[in-house]
Specification:
The structure is a homodimer of 310-residue chains. By secondary structure, chain A is an alpha/beta fold. The first copy, chain A, has 2 domains: 5-173, Rossmann fold; 177-288, 6-phosphogluconate dehydrogenase C-terminal fold, CATH 1.10.3660. The first copy, chain A, has 13 helices and 9 strands. Chain A has helices spanning 13-25, 38-47, 57-61, 76-83, 101-110, 153-165, 175-201, 208-213, 219-225, 230-239, 241-263, 267-276, 278-286; strands spanning 5-9, 30-34, 52-53, 66-69, 92-95, 115-116, 119-121, 142-145, 169-172. In chain A, the strands form 2 sheets. A 6-stranded parallel sheet of chain A has the order 3-2-1-4-5-6, with helices on both faces. Chain A has a 3-stranded mixed sheet with strand order 7-8-9, with helices on one face. In chain A, strand 5 (92-95), helix 5 (101-110) and strand 6 form a beta-alpha-beta unit. Chain A starts with a strand and ends in a 24-residue tail after the last helix. At the A-B interface, helix 7, helix 8, helix 9, helix 10 and helix 11 of A face helix 7, helix 8, helix 9, helix 10 and helix 11 of B. Chains A, B: It comes from Allopontixanthobacter sediminis. Chains A, B: Keywords: Amino-acid biosynthesis, Aromatic amino acid biosynthesis, NAD, Oxidoreductase, Tyrosine biosynthesis. Chains A, B: Residues 290-310 are annotated as: Disordered. Chains A, B: Belongs to the prephenate/arogenate dehydrogenase family.
């Protein structure tokens, strides 16, 4: 492992999980960390998310071989600005943001002369903050790296080793293509989930209490995603606007077609779509990207949480 | 328990789960069952879903105190027609369909003079067929009954006892209101999930393989719902058309507002929605309607299925 010392800027779900994963799977690597929120720094220290929680970002990166920004993508330019003066010349600069084109541009502009390799581990939960991370978050998950033509191959290999060391599989991708792929596999699903939860909360003829009581009909699945960190997701939509609007356009076209099928009682069109969509879940399960048990193996179907009827 | 003998017509996920739940929680109640598919009847018999799998629906209902139709809502009229001649006069007729107005009308038209009380247990998984059911499916879940002004109170109380006996909580509701509530808590979520999975499968610039690989970013959640039974869901949309179109209209209005916010970089509007939607998930968990663990407690976050990094 060429990387001996990693600095983690931002100690929430992702930053904390990287720190814990390094401690568990890469014991030879030292970690330092910083968070702009003093309260988060205290909580990160109590959980031992990194070897040393530093009082300033400059201090955290002073001897780093790798600096990973784990802050909302909109906060990256200011965070990069903070460390410019104290960054070792050889350090690799990376991040974990969900959009890659604007992040790469911002990091390269803020830290000229440094090796910038944007990264995106496609992993997470709906929780956020320094209590949310755990060491196994990246197991079986893909981490996408988006180098450009100037990226030194050695640095790319070092970053790849680091991520593989904490359990991820690596894919190298063009930043623009990453942003398009993630728009459909992550950003649009989140936008839809946030929206339907908002719609359901604001109805006059169906109460909020009814929405909650009967959520097991499907709605509750969407509320998980819609409980994700608001700042992080606001920034994702502002920073991947083009790809999100493109994919949203395609989704609404398809939804309009379904609306027309329902209005005209076109059962065949509905049945055709509903049949085609089954295969993709089977493929996701075969590829190890989801739990194979019904209902994600939720506790109430495995006997846990079962009350005895009177 | 006034109901001593229950006949279950249709032995898939719901019918099978009722049979297994009766066996476990109401051992004094005898069950018979029928499925129009001879292969399903054989598999239902092998799993012991009901006390007796009958070769005809007439035979199954011959001595029943309660008949529950557990078939797609579009198949209810024909199934009701089949048993008309052999139904005991005192038997309560019910079902488990996800829309209630058209079902109630169809059952009352097909079986005049009988006590019809439509029911909807808000519970299920994405699986279907006689292998999918399990006894604890209704634990902690709500079962909505939609009697009308002619329903005898005794019969309503008997049906309530039956459902409570297999673990459900009961709510009495007007059929039209049920259809509106379920449109938002179940039908629109399913329609959206089916649609986004269809959209993602059909892109030219993002491959199906990429969609599968990076599905952990949120998309995989939608594929679970989109793996639900196509026939059942086609029928739901055809039979609850008015309420579904009404709620779909509200959702698309809200989605258009989000689209505009993204296009105009209105971070405040995005942040405002994303903040409001967190509360409803907390309420759902407090009400015992979902797993409190992050990511539904999926196996890959609980240590199961974790591979050791090399």
């Amino acid at each position: 492992m060429a990387i001996k010392r990693a600095a983690i800027i931002g100690l929430g779900l992702l930053g904390g999980s990287i720190g814990l994963a390094v401690k568990e799977f890469l014991p030879g690597v030292t970690t330092t960390g910083f968070d702009i929120d003093p309260g988060v720094r205290v909580r990160a220290g109590l959980r031992g998310l990194v070897g040393e929680v530093c009082g300033t970002a400059e201090h955290a990166v002073a001897d780093a071989d790798l600096v990973i920004f784990c802050v909302p993508v909109g906060a990256i330019p200011a965070a990069a600005e903070q460390i410019r003066g104290s960054l070792p010349p050889h350090a690799i600069i990376s991040d974990v943001g969900s959009s890659k084109q604007t992040v790469g541009e911002a990091l390269r502009a803020a830290l000229p002369g440094h090796t910038v390799i944007p990264a995106h581990p496609v992993a997470g939960t709906e929780r956020s903050g320094p209590e949310a991370g755990f060491a196994s978050l990246f197991q079986h998950r893909w981490c996408i790296l988006t180098p450009d033509e100037d990226t030194p191959p050695d640095a790319l290999a070092d970053l790849q080793d680091f991520w593989e060391g904490i359990g991820a599989r690596i894919e190298i991708m063009d930043a623009a293509h990453h942003d398009l792929v993630l728009a459909v596999t992550s950003h649009i699903p989140h936008l839809i989930a946030y929206t339907i939860v908002g719609t359901a909360s604001d109805l006059e003829d169906v109460t909020r209490s009814e929405v909650i009581k009967y959520s097991a009909g499907g709605f509750r699945d969407f509320t998980r995603i819609a409980a994700s960190d608001p700042t992080m997701w606001r920034d994702v939509f502002l920073h991947n606007r083009g790809a999100v609007l493109e994919m949203l356009g395609r989704f609404t076209e398809d939804l309009t077609a379904m609306q027309r099928a329902i209005r005209s009682s076109d059962g065949e069109a509905l049945f055709d779509l509903f049949t085609r969509t089954r295969d993709i879940r089977n493929s996701i399960i075969e590829m190890g990207q989801d739990d194979a048990r019904p209902d994600f193996g939720r506790a109430d179907h495995t006997g846990q949480g079962t009350k005895e009827p009177s």
